[in-house]
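Quick log. Single chain, no ligands specified.
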Amino acid sequence: MSSVGRQSLSRILLVFLATACIFFVLKQSRVAFSIMSTDPLSRLAVSVRKSASHTLTFSVTNNHDAPITILKWETPLDPLALKVGKVKLFAPADSNDALDFPTIQVRRKMPPGQDQLVTILPGDTKESSVELDVPFFPVDQLKGDVKITCQGRWVSAWQKTADEISPKELEELNAGDEALSGEYEMVPVTVNF
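-> predicted structure:
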């Protein structure tokens, strides 16, 4: 084969390999985007508001098109969210250092009971309030604007209602076939005390 023929063959092979690589990369990115956009937990929106003098009310809104049931533990809907360290407060609001207050470690009874599950229907919102109580929390430091953040992990969730979750699924938590888990992070909110 002449050198001109080899160069032509090399160019054809190079174009073919480049096309195959581009196709593969595009296909993989579409699959990853599809998986990310259909993840039901990414469609849960977390927010907070001051509902009383020293009470914060956390809300979780389901922006997905199917019901989602979450285990309350260590989420914004956990009455102990503040005490287990999922909530941070910054006073004044522009401070980089969160207020220092003690946190606790909790041992939970396994498997969780149905009362530890919350079903959020599409477009619906569920709320839970936490009390900023003395002596546990330094309420005397809450003056003016205070920035609040909340982040953690959805320990276990299912894309169905609580009454459809079997006792076996509760025992397995996020190890079950239909169980979901993932990170959550609330956009920081500033409230005035």
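Confidence is low (pLDDT under 50) at residues 25-37.
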